[in-house]
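#lab-general

N.A. 3:47 PM
ok so I finally got the sequence cleaned up, no stray characters, all 280 residues accounted for. can someone with queue access submit it? mine expired

B.Y. 3:52 PM
send it over

N.A. 3:53 PM
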Amino acid sequence: MGLAVIGFQKNNRMVCWVVAAVRTVGRLGIFRTVDESPKEYILSDPYRTFADLYDRIYHGKDYEKEAGYLRDLLVSEGVSLGSSLLEAGCGTGNYLGYFSRDFHVSGFDRSPAMLSNAKAKLPGVNLFEADMADFSILEPVDALVCLFGGVGYVFPEERLRRAAACFAEAVRPGGCVIVEPWISPEDYDAGRPSVDTYNDPDLAVSRICVAKRDADFSILNFSYSVAFRDHQVEQFTSSHKIWMAPHSLIEEVFQEAGFEMRKHPSDSTNFRGLLVGQRR
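B.Y. 4:20 PM
back already:
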């Protein structure tokens, strides 16, 4: 049993139901209303409402292929197999699971819900809750990666600079950093509708969104519909505000923090661009 929060829109305001119990369907910890009461709620953790659905929504993402590509890139940058690797914003641990085949891994995330799922997948791996702009580790690592646009949640620029300083403290001299930025402002398609789906014999999920823009921020208000076998359809929302920081600015900030940064050439992978740096 546990506490969960489901949000929905009412009169242009976010309203959430406090859900007193969580039951499990198969291996999925999911929302079930037992004792409900409406309550205004501000989602400080945008992943809180759908952490248990995250891997299902992204079931088509080839983490193994991407992790293999990044492994080869790290080796080409002088990070030998068996070296220490820290992932900032590790989410549910999908990349770390594959990195652990070749590196001694650890990771952190700001979302307790996402981190809980990562810990279930990766017993024995050092995983801790922290913010990219305010973290420290006992010993510097050989490589630090921040993937899937996670750096877009680090704003304004002052926080990005604090994050870059934390990254620099966490990487040994000669070590490597890889940052995958969020979508750049010129590539963002505001107004574009999108839908992601997942379906198995006991669970169906859809996530639909119309991308919005507010200055240099992506505004993604996801609407979820979740259907369980022999149960009613449940709906909730999850809102994300992500900074479309120019990639050149991210490169500059990390350069000033103590890395020799460069843009990695575009290729056929699904990355939104990679910034690679060596710690001075």
